[in-house]
Amino acid sequence: MTTDLIVCGLGPGGRALAHRAVARGMSVTVVDPRPERRWTATYAAWADDIPQWVPAHTIAATVARPVAWGTRRFEIDRPYAVFDVAALQDSLALGDARVVADRAAEIVRPRRGAGREAVRLASGEVLTAWRIIDARGVGRSPAWAEQTAYGVVVARERWAEPLFMDWRPDHGAGMGEPPSFLYAIPLGPGTCLLEETCLAGRPALSGAELRERLRTRLRCRGIELDGSEPVEHVRFPVQGGRPGHRRFGAAGALLHPATGYSVAASLAAADAVAASASIWPPTARAVHRLRTAGLRALLALPPSDVPRFFDAFFDLSPRWQRAYLSGRADLPGTAAAMAALFGKLPWRLRRTLVAATVGR
């Protein structure tokens, strides 16, 4: 039987798309090797990026004015929301969708015009639909920069101030070594996550390196870990997604290449994609290219200059910060934000960024 839509992959993007398609009354099949797998990563988003249809109970904590440190302290004038990941996953109910526990091995598109599409499963079974969306994420590659992190969950009374990003150099690494920052957010009323993060690296810092940096940093701030704390490991590519109407989530380039954020963008775009609307107008494609150039610039910065770069970014007006972080189709805002950031940097860094941005 040919269904309206097949979604390959049940991460946050794929599950959100299937959920919204079912809500529209479409016949939906979802394909994933482990459809019952529970999500374990921590997901967060700027509160104003989360669409209104997402239930309020899926938010575990909200930080009204998160703090960022480059070489000095900034308060970000924008609420930051941390998801209750289990509640978010459960809220994206699949309803009457057919769930197939298998791996999508090959997606076959019609050569000319519209028509049925097919997906061949690892088991050999072939499923057909009028539309097939690839939401299987992005595989790792040595050619692509990755984001890595190592975090521990501690009682909330052990940590006072939520930190969106803290680049202060008390993690024990040398000045010339790849940079990392501390991310410290509440997970609910009783716990918080303390995580050492490599924003983007090629190659990225390993979990073992980040673990030692986190322990050193926390020890400097009066916190000793005893090894019983729950641990979070993070590793995923921040490159490799391709814009297009047949891919979604990270596979469809909804992951911000310079920050690694994708969940809110996927939630916000799910209704449009379910309705077969385009989410990639020319302005969005141009913004994606500018963001990719921003990633190249970030990777090119000397490690010791990364905190100064973020001093300049968090010194931008909230309007320009939001344009760069969230304006997926806001070409004028993104370009203006990047120009304003460039203007705040010293000439030495400007030369580095120009060479990286226009190069390959």
In short:
The protein is α+β, with helices and mostly antiparallel strands and 360 residues long. It contains 9 helices and 16 strands. A 7-stranded mixed sheet has the order 6-5-13-14-15-12-16. Strands 8-2-1-11-10-9 form a 6-stranded mixed sheet, covered by helices on one side. Strands 3-7-4 form a 3-stranded antiparallel sheet.
Helix content percent band: 25-40%
Order of helices and strands: EHEEEEEEHEEEEEEEEHEHHHHHH
Say how many strands there are: 16
* CATH fold type of the largest domain: FAD/NAD(P)-binding domain
Number of helices: 9
Strand content: 25-35%
Contiguous uncertain segments of 5+ residues: none
InterPro entries: FAD/NAD-bd_sf (IPR036188)
Pfam family, one: Lycopene_cycl
Protein name: Lycopene cyclase
Give structural notes.
- The longest helix has 19 residues, at 282-300.
- Helices cover 30% and strands 25% of the residues.
- It has 9 helices and 16 strands.
- The relative contact order is 0.15.
- The chain is α+β, with helices and mostly antiparallel strands and 360 residues long.
- The chain starts with a strand and ends with a helix.
- The mean pLDDT is 95.
